[in-house]
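Blackboard transcription, Thursday session:
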Amino acid sequence: MMVREIEKTGIPVVHVVSMTPISLSGGVNRILTSYGIPNPMSDPYATPQVQERQRYEIMEKALEVLCTDIQEQTVFDH
Amino acid sequence: MKKVIMYLNQFFGQIGGEDQADCAPQLHEGALGPAQGLQGLLKGGEITHTIICGDNYMAVHTQRALDAIAQMLDSLEFDLFLAGPAFLAGRYGSACGEVCKFVQERYKVSAVTSMNRDNPGVDMFRQDCYILEGGSNAAAMRKDLPKMAAFANKILNGEPLKWAQAEGYFSRGIRRQVLLPEEENVAERAYEMLMKKLKGQPFVSETPMDVPEPVPIAKPLEDAGKARIAFISTAGLVPMGNPDRIQTAAATRFGRYSLEGRESLKAGEWETVHGGYDHSYGNADPQIIMPLDALRKLEREGKLGYLHPYFYSTVGNLTNQLNAERMAHEIIPYLQEDHIDAVIFGSA
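(Written on the board underneath:)
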């Protein structure tokens, strides 16, 4: 997986993904659950204003995950 | 009668031990050493020649050894090439893999060897030839030779080969559709497997994932407000028209798209080409895949120190592991050049 190769260089990576079991079996360390497979960053049935907030919040959460000290593979919820 | 050629090292070729490990390749008529045992087990094939080469010679003078072997083989006709078994012997295993790969590429003839799972030759050459799983030392010869013969016989007699697990060779990383009329169909097998799973009984996946070694967990950022962040995506978002022709499946390429001067990604300028999901949401709003407006806002608010001026995009759909790794290694220098501290990686 691409994520693993990047993290091997010492750069922390947060994987924002819907299918978290695949990410776990691929050996990714920091995993953030996304909204869905064709719509990772927001709920397409929400209003544009709500989606804008969802995008902001999931990216803010991604930054928080990158700042989180973990001891093992961890899945975070958005 | 089909013709088979066998490769052995100096020890199994009965030239000598470590003192003969530097000997150059030699060609002998007929079957020698383990090849004799194998000969008795082959059906429809005859070992016409045995090539013997010292393990050190092959390791140190690989190209010279392969050139010499090519000179021997160019004038010979053969239908199958066998090497080993190499058990847990590292140099012998590498030599068998090296020769099998070479012969298969040059003569378009199947090559088969046998090694123990922990032989370094397995990982080096499992994608290049058939490597049967063998024992750890020569005491396993009695088991490994019949296994090799049974597999060789299938090739010699044109019998269809099944998948790695069924045939006892190390997976070559190839997925191929096979029609097995005598087997239960896929719905029946899936049903059986599901029932076992529901009952908590053990079952074996037909497409096991290689579980990779864990990657050391990278240190967290101290302050995202001071961090330099890049965004990468495998959800297949590309500029309209897909200028880099990123494949919709089994991608071998990625795009590097400038974010300079952009505050958001607008519908109509971007499209998704990922072949594995419905594109309607991503085409209607590219920021559902790459949330640039959110990243810019976080940057303005000082919660994200700096956003790398490019985002990287490919399609993570049936992507071959080696291509995924290669693409990552092609992206990494761009990240390092811009002193990137962390990556947000979005997938579909």
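Lecturer's comment: Chain B has eleven helices and twelve strands.
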